[in-house]
Amino acid sequence: MTLAAGNLAKTAAPTLAHPALGSPGEREALLALASIAAHTVAPLWPLDSAIAVNPLAGFEDLPFEDAVPQAAALHGARATLSLPEWRSLLAEGRINDVALRKTVVQALGGLEAAFDPLVPELNAYDLLIARLVTLDAEHAPPVRRALSPAVAMLARWLGAFFDRTAALPVPGRARGLYPCLLQALRHDPALGKSVEATGAAWLASAPGDPVEMLLLGARREAVSPEHRLAWLRTLVATLPGWAAHLRWRTEYAGPEASRGAPATMLDLMALMALVRGLERPALQAVPDAPSPRTVEAALLRHFGLSADAAKTWPAAARERLATVAALTPAQLGFLFQQAAEASHLATLTAPLEGASARRTAPRAPIRPQVQAVFCIDVRSEPMRRALEAQGAIDGAFETVGYAGFFGLPIALAPIPLAPMAEAQARNQLPVLLSPAHVVPETAAPGREAEARTVLARQAALADAQAMLDTTKAGATGFATAEAAGPLAAVSMIARTLAPRLTDALRRRVIGDAGQVLAPAACNDDPAIGHGHAHDHAIPLAQKIAYARGMFTLTGLSAQTARLFVLVGHGGCTTNNAFAASLDCGACGGHPGGPNARLMAAILNDPAVRAGLAAQGLALPEDTWFLAAQHDTTRDIVEVFDRHLVPASHADDLAHLDAALARAGVQARAERATRLGRTPQDLLVGAAHWAEVRPEWGLSGNAAFIIGPRALTQGLDLGGTAFLHSYDWKQDEDGSALTGIMTAPMIVAQWINCQYLFSTIDNEAFGAGDKTTQNVTGGFGVVQGSGGDLCTGLPRQSLFHDDGTPYHIPRRLTVIVEAPLQRVEGIVRRHDAVGRLVENGWINLVVIDPWKHQAHRWLRGEWKARPC
Amino acid sequence: MNQTTPLADGRRAPAPTASRRILSLADLPVLALGALLATAILGGLTAVTPAGVALAGLSLLITGVVIGFARRQLRADPRAAWFGRMAIALAIATVMMGLAGNVVLLVAAWIVSGRLMAGMIGHVGEWAEARAALRRASIAFGIGDLALVGAALLLSLGTGSTQIAAIVAAAPGLAPDIVLPAAALLVVAALARCALPPFFSWLMRSLAAPTPVSALMHAGFVNAGGFLLIRFVPALEAAPAARFVLFATGILAALAGSAIMLVRSDVKGGLAASTVAQMGFMLLTIALGGYAAALWHMVAHGVFKAWLFLGSAGTVSRAPATKALPRAWPAGIALAALAGGLALLHWGPATALLPLGLAATALLCALAVGLRAASRSPVGMIVIAIPILLIAINAAALAFVAHVQPDAAMPLLSGPAQWVLLLVFLSVWVLQQRVARGEQSLPPALYARLIHAGNPTA
């Protein structure tokens, strides 16, 4: 994930325009700093493959409580919810009173320090509780940062430069971001009008080399070498959204994303340095936080004392008062956040410890009727619980949690609609990995004729769209608008009045591509490769390894049920720029059905089964693997390739179908309650073009539980937990746990932090109100008529209709059932994990599998009481 | 069965409000407006004209759809109820304007609808961009309102009546020093409302409003300018100078709007620029005397634009859209359309040579794209049929409108001059196709002007 300095310097060919500027040493130093500063923002994926990332990923080297205020200051954001917001969460009972008190005591340094009277009848605990809960506090809502005129103009140019659907690219785009926009700004009459003479001279004299521009900018602002990193970070954070898009483009996107328009972060920083020289620095409005002295007086008044009462106190008592009064709003909010985390953990530890103890009791091994592997996604939990409840006896329906890409590192190459068209492969795996195989999509076996029909219809639809696109611009647009008007009227009325009927009709007309097209599992047929450069054949040994991986990581036994379902997931929504954020993050922000189908095909392959048996994993002959996709918006599970199911399993399938339908009704009803709507309305919302909150997505996520399902079975986790199946007994060398903690757990932490920061400041770290969003460049949204690219999630995904947060900002609590030493070893050996744990970006709790007691990792050691 | 223990901390579901009050104090102004409309209708202060019915019908259709849309989309918006009231009030005002038989009523409805729309543009009151857009819109509408009041005064005093029927009947006989300023003021009012230069920046900045507001604005509100001119068309025809100003501004807006649309990377910005162009085209058609064509354009474009705005959140896509025809095609199509135009001129007089020529171009263009589809599969034949069908529907609708709304007795331009106008439009179109194909680039300074068009620069 590091940005190579060489990459940065691509456009930084030294020129002789300003020979005086920058000794080679100074240039080198600046380049090194620039590559660090580039990490001020996290990469931002385009919305068609939305990936949740921690917007503060560049600050993970710092402890959470230090990093957040720092980043907030840099981005002009809030560091926490406002006190009134936290108080309303407390009043609603979503934060536990006891947990808050314990947190306060802990923050004050223990019982003695908290309750030691400062003066009779007054102690530090009372003071802090008063500050948290009762003293007047201002509600400061997040504010959208206003851009200065020159920065707003630059943002417009950046939008035009990065546009990937542009009718008309910015002139000189191929020369790269800095040279192209430098040229553009020089020719910009609006900019020329708005800047003063010194600004105009600055623009005219700007060097053509971005490094020189940066050196010149640093010199102009008299930035000393030790302050250069901070200065560069400020440059990156001027338009953090566009910078984040650029990070994705340079580090994660394929070369095709920047073809014809190269750009580096150095270019962007240089442009910011240039623009800063064009206008007088605006006066930064500093929010006036109440001074500690005022707070002290207010506290004393609250307890019926005069403002100068403390003068007569002993020094130690005065100091305690001063300490409490000096706590910033960010620090107070952080206390609330810790209390919220503790509240949640308190509900989990006792049941999990109990379940861990019960698990050791000998149990008659029964072979489940059906096994279902779901994604670890928090939205699987209600559905798993509902499905398990459908079994005739306990354990008849067993569910397992595994990363939703089923361990298949693939990219999927869709069938191109037109013979000459080039269809881009889409990555169906976590962004931490890169695809090992490009798998072509092909007609599902046995449904070739239907597939041809569907493809023909899709092509026709694409042609109709091309017709509209070609004729709607320019002079023909006047006639096109008229001609399309009646059609638009029908569509508009239908989508508003009868959304479900319209959706059903649309599906009917286009055909069910999701069913009849599938990733090619077997590559004996040369016809299925459509001229892709990659070799899409997955070697048998690899297939066996992927199949085995699922058993190793989840601790599944080889005694599989007769019917074994692999359930991917995807959302269901229309007219939604954030549709992909409802899909499977483990599948690169796409629906997980294709991965499930490929995995099922692999597991049904006799050669794979033989290979597994040879490795000591002999699955029963009568196990059939089935693929399905869980529609998380409607809680409908769609089963794929039913026609391939052997006749011997027809009854099992019928039984499963009925159970899935019942489970879906139950899960939907449960989710409808959380959304404050009727289950019926969820079905309407999925098809309605005005729906801004088809589902809660991963809102509410708070825990990541690594252990067997028996640990959580019977608990209603309310869709707040990622569940990864794991059996410590079958993982002697700890490699499976290492795999889980270094990949899915990290992804869950990214998701958790995206939701957390999008909630804390929805304007700076989130995407704001959906109704004023404006899709730009085909890949992102801006607010209103332009400005910075929005990062994070929209407000409607996180907040109730009345504006109170649905998602409570809480760091991810990772709960593992495993030997303490094993977990400790992983934390110490793997920096990616250790950094998060030691710096408090996640809370790590381990349940000792022998004593069945929860331990929390706190500052380098285990602490027996988790909260 | 499993025993489940609820642990979730999801907040209890908000209790459904037991009884929603049917009416509140805030509804009173809307009710008053409704009562006023009812009184006007019952009191015989209304007049039914094709333009008025078209405007009122369009407004009711769009308002119905937008309110249905907004009930869901604005559910988390504290001002959702306020929006609903404003939308209904705007619809009532627009219907009143469309059906007004009296110039006082028309002017009042015009001013009220402008205030309502300005308020809706400032929907997100705590956002500086929205406040700036509100200010900009208020200024533009204020100028338009003053112009309309001036025109109404001149016409009423000049003809001695406030009845629109009487005014338009007497307008051709008015002295030039009354009718020319009156027509010019009508044109100014229409330009302000239709967001044509020099007023177009209010529309370009109005994107700070939620999507449903944009749909109302682009589909119904801006069209009132076209309606106004058609309603007072005898006054306009009596002042050829005003007509020429309208004509020139229309061409400018049509070209500039199309050009801005080419460089905008944001969907809503592109749509707003396109509205400027479309309104330019509509007013240009009115200047030429093609009232039926302008009226049909007003309705069809209104619906089309509302549809695009409401669906604008679904435009995230991976692939760049095909926006240009293959190389030699545009020139060929343009030549064919021009030849057709010549033939039409031979046939007889045509006030709507430009719209017809452009419709033919669009059809040929669509067929050229569809040709690929047809060659691939039988389903592709349906694709070919779509534009033909749509153009046929279009022609039928136009014929119907022409039946109720006569065109100008005197076209502004002679047949050959109209043909030259078509030539100009098609030449620009061929050039635009070249640009879109990347064969021609715009001068950087022009590109910069287009990209900032309508936006604050300082």
UniProtKB/TrEMBL annotation, chain A:
InterPro entries linked: DabA
Signal peptide: none
Cofactor: Zn(2+)
Binding site for Zn(2+): 375, 377, 569, 584
Record's function text: Part of an energy-coupled inorganic carbon pump.
Annotated protein name in UniProt: Probable inorganic carbon transporter subunit DabA
Main location: membrane
HAMAP family tied to this protein: DabA (MF_01871)
Stated family: Belongs to the inorganic carbon transporter (TC 9.A.2) DabA family.
Cited Pfam families: DabA
Subunit annotation: Forms a complex with DabB.
Organism: Novosphingobium pokkalii
Keywords on record: Cell membrane, Membrane, Metal-binding, Transport, Zinc
Bilayer topology: Peripheral membrane protein
Localization annotation: Cell membrane
Automatic annotation (TrEMBL), chain B:
Domain NADH:quinone oxidoreductase/Mrp antiporter transmembrane: residue ranges: 100-319
InterPro entries per record: ND/Mrp_TM, NU5C-like
One Pfam family, short name: Proton_antipo_M
Transmembrane intervals: 21-45, 51-70, 82-101, 178-203, 215-235, 241-263, 270-292, 328-347, 353-374, 381-402, 408-431
Entry protein name: Proton-conducting transporter membrane subunit
Subcellular location: Endomembrane system; Membrane
Organism: Novosphingobium pokkalii
Keywords: Membrane, Transmembrane, Transmembrane helix
Topological relation to the membrane, as annotated: Multi-pass membrane protein
